[in-house]
Write a structure and sequence with these properties.
The complex is a heterodimer of chains A (207) and B (104). By secondary structure, chain A is an all-alpha fold. Chain A is 82% helix and 2% strand. Chain A contains eight helices and one strand, in the order H-H-H-H-H-H-H-H-E. Chain B has a single domain, classed as Winged helix-like DNA-binding domain superfamily/Winged helix DNA-binding domain (Arc Repressor Mutant, subunit A). Chain B has four helices and three strands; from the N terminus they run E-H-H-H-E-E-H. Chain B has a two-stranded antiparallel ribbon with strand order 2-3. The longest helix of chain B is centred in the last third of the chain and has 25 residues. Classes of the chains: A mainly alpha (207), B alpha+beta (104). Strand 1 of chain A pairs antiparallel with strand 1 of chain B.
Chain lengths: 207, 104
Amino acid sequence: MNKVIDNYILQLKQNLVNLPNSDMQDVVEFYQEFLLDGNYHNESEIIAELGTPKQLARKIMADYSVSIPEREEAHKTSSKSNLKTIWVILLGVLAAPIGIPLALAAVIVMVAVLIALAAIFIALAIIITSLFIAGVFILIRSFGLLFGGYWASGFFYVGGGLVLICISLMLFPVIMKFIRFLTAECAAFFQHIGRKIFKQRYYKTNV
Amino acid sequence: MTIVIQNRLLDGVVLAFIKENSGYSRGITNCAKATFGISESAIYPVLKRLRENKFLLVGTRLFQGRSRNYYQITASGKAELKTIKKEWYSFSTKINQIMGEENE
């Protein structure tokens, strides 16, 4: 067996992280055969043909993540794996050969969506934690009033503090659900864009 | 000049190639590269899709001391190729009728 090819395939495997085992075996076999049949002798020949193992792995993973059925699937999977899908597609588009029209525009749109998503997450997190902290703070202050003889306003503050804490605790699952929903929608949107980019094959002539 | 090649057309081309020529993936990718300038990474999903739809079967043959995958077209694959061909002929005839000869 050819050492250079073995090495390339090994590196490819190491870079294919998120694929299910059977798909990984299948795709690795395809490229291994492609290389063995091509009789390559040094690494630069292979890289000229397929790109570096990392680039090829990104292309494969992006291809794979856009091939998963879109929306229903995105809502069923966890936010974490949806974020992973988004990430993989973004890397895949970046690894796509230059010259694919729209690739740059797509990257810009994707990054903009990601920034917006992160901003929404942060804003929601700040809202919920500030409500909670305000509640705790008021509760602590109320004890001073209670034991200082102002029991009426003390009780008022105890109530207020508890209400704020409760609101923040009640909001928490709602916000988590909302975040899940948003990431799923984003993943579906990214898959849509990715599909547009990866699935177009161009027939080019030099005319 | 750029024309986008539809997946359905790619399916047809790959099926036709396997039916008429060799079923080794290298031959298929070479053909796609030579005629359309399409890379092997675009052919892998096509082969996978055709296999999953049972239009192709994979077998292995020994070659220079290692086993090599070999694709064969199935009966339903031949039927599929026929439909794609039909669709393509009616489509391309219409286009040609409207656009006329190349150097007109």
